[in-house]
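dumping this here so i dont lose it
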């Protein structure tokens, strides 16, 4: 972590630089499921193998939501989730740096 004596605009530039390459970003948890289907004489279901699918779970305004993720999109969704975690980590760091910067700015102002 860098200098204590930075101003808020420096923290803002740092955050924008760091976040610039973090799109697409998402939060949630990706789960792998095996489920039976609705067809009557399905070979995969009868053999017990069933059907695999991916589902992303998350919360929207406190409500649990889920969305089906086609298998070919899984690598892209995983990349989104990695970016989301990195972005979340950045926001935690930003809290501390920005508050320190605001305090520093206030001290400088009170000195005149
Ligand atoms: Zn089936």
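and the seq i came up w/
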């Amino acid at each position: 972590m860098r200098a204590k004596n930075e101003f808020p605009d420096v923290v803002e530039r740092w955050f924008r630089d760091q976040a610039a390459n973090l799109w697409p970003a998402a939060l949630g948890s990706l789960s792998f499921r095996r489920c039976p289907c609705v067809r009557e004489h399905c070979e995969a279901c009868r053999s017990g193998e069933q059907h695999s699918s991916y589902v992303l779970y998350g919360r929207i305004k406190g409500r649990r939501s889920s969305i089906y993720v086609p298998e070919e999109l899984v690598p892209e969704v995983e990349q989104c989730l990695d970016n989301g975690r990195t972005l979340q980590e950045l926001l935690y760091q930003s809290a501390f740096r920005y508050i320190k910067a605001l305090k520093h700015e206030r001290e400088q102002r009170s000195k005149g």
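Residues 22 and 83 are 5 Å apart (CA to CA).
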